[in-house]
Amino acid sequence: MQHGKYRFIVGFLAVPLGLYALFVIWPFIQSIYYSFTDWTGLSPEFKMVGFDNYSRMLDDDIFWKSLQHSVIFALLVPLVTLSLALFFAFMINVGGRRRRGGPAISGVRGSGVYKIVYFFPQVLSIAIVALLFQFAYNPDSGAINSLLRGIGLDSVQPLWLGDPSIALWCVMAVLVWSTVGFFVVLFSAGMASIPAELYEAALLDGANRATTFFKVTLPLLWDTVQSGWVYMGILALGAESFAVVQIMTTGPGGPDYSTTVMVLYVYQKAFRDGQAAYATTIGVALLVVTLAFAAVVTRLGRRERLEF
Amino acid sequence: MKTTETPAPVPAEPGTPVLKTQAAPGGPKKGKKEGTTLNVFSHGVLVIWAIMVGMPLVWAVMTSFKDDASIFGSPWSLPDKLHFDNWSRAWSQAHMSDYFLNTVLVVGGSLIGTLVLGSMAAYVLARFDFPGNRFIYYLFIAGMSFPIMLALVPLFYVVDNMGMLNTIHGLILVYIAYSLPFTVFFLTGFFRSLPSSVAEAAFVDGASHTRTFFQVMLPMAKPGLISVGIFNFLGQWNQYMLPTVLNTDPDKHVLTQGLVQLAVSQGYKGDWSGLFAGLVMAMLPVLAAYIIFQRQVVQGLTAGALK
């Protein structure tokens, strides 16, 4: 298999690797370099300024707010999403009525329908979902408040996205809503592959459902849960939180910076305020947060797995 | 929770280990009751979430057929009559047709490009030993975890300098580049799992490496290509962040951008019914495709996470 091997390798790798290097790798390297300059993005001139951008960032209150919100996104959204998904998947696969002479563990009836419906939001663009909920949250004519009025809760009419104290929660809820289904399906597939004997053995030993879940299902699914956590966290730090915050909130990032996240702040600094260099500085901070998040989750996960 | 403690107090039927025979008389009453309570509870919880997922979508479809007055007056009432004019207004006046066309062009081009280039790179990385193989592989993998927004600031100027800002082909190339990490990762694993004997036989028969790849390996890799193709199709069709930064010309907008733009401008014009029609118009094809190709879509989207 040696004949013309290297020519073939180069021929096949050149275009994909070139494209990837030009549009992905090179800009990443550039942006780290730009974070040490005073480049505005509007003119090609710039000079090196050392760590000025970084010290400015540390004094920037809005940066700290966005960092705080991004960390909340990365920790809470996966936690809530994965917990709900595990719960639903367990109910779908194990919550069924025990039939006479049937297996010890069975799924609920209509489990296929649940999985289909839960998966709907996953195929929709997060931008469309965000737009939809922006209207649903509208305090006067939105679906949620008018539903509350309809069931007699006239006094409970929150401003939702207009209220700085709950706006962030509203935005996070939308992300949870749209991703739970994906993980329900993922975990269901994982649970279906756990041998029934293990459940039967646990039941024989007198384990109740909760014990079965924590001692059998969760440990065996742990790898999937862990990679799901990293995947979801990266999305919640990046593209997904950008779309929901940029589309749904006033400002965007408001009211009163109560929903701004790092990825949005990078975008605004670069493309609205003409401070490209400072934007890349915040971007570097976002990179650090993302890598730290992935490292911590992987590490914690590894320790957990050894216990079982 | 309280009914679930079955263990210790089972002095019953000596010599009859409970085994699978949960249905046998004695212990079963309790077991059955537990099963029923749990069954009711789990169905209850599952139905509530199904309603929470379904209701906003049903509400959107309903709203798209109403006139503006009743959208604001009574958001949950059924439409008095089906206002199909909302849909035609959205399709032509609000440029939904243009957005659809742009999206089809961009996604069509980038999907083909991603699959061709991704499988070429993955095949070489999976099947050939050469210095730098591991390095290039991990270079691709690294792209999956980096925050794209960090690269987007310089990327804007890279694309601008090449004269490809606000062009369809510029957007296609960028989509391909950002889809490569996952595609290469997934397909490398897939090519590794294929038997090597077939390719070797083809090679012995005198086929070149290139021919072996296109005529033997690609057809064998079809299931993997379908999975990763569906994954990329949905990702690229639903993409919002990349076009928001790189494609600011309203005439070139893709669906997601167009809708957001529409939402902003309808705020002044007040054509909410048209906007909802546009939203539903964008939602329905994807939902319909999902329902038809349900199994493949679920496999395609979850395959990567399970690897």
Automatic annotation (TrEMBL), chain B:
Q: Which InterPro entries match?
A: MetI-like, MetI-like_sf
Task: List residues of the ABC transmembrane type-1 domain.
Answer: 100-293
Q: Pfam families per the record?
A: BPD_transp_1
Membrane-protein topology: Multi-pass membrane protein
Transferase listed as a keyword:
no
What residue spans carry the region label Disordered? 1-35
Residue stretches in coiled coil: none
Main localization of the protein? membrane
- Does the keyword field hold Cell membrane? yes
Name the SUPFAM superfamilies on file: MetI-like
Where does the source fall among the domains of life? Answer: Bacteria
**Protein location:** Cell membrane
Q: Which UniProt keywords apply?
A: Cell membrane, Membrane, Transmembrane, Transmembrane helix, Transport
Gene3D superfamilies, per this entry?
A: MetI-like
Transmembrane stretches, by residue range? 40-62, 99-125, 137-159, 171-191, 212-234, 272-293
Family per similarity comment? Belongs to the binding-protein-dependent transport system permease family.
What is this protein's record name?
Answer: Carbohydrate ABC transporter permease
Source species of the chain: Streptomyces ardesiacus
Traced from the root, the source organism's taxonomic lineage reads: Bacteria, Bacillati, Actinomycetota, Actinomycetes, Kitasatosporales
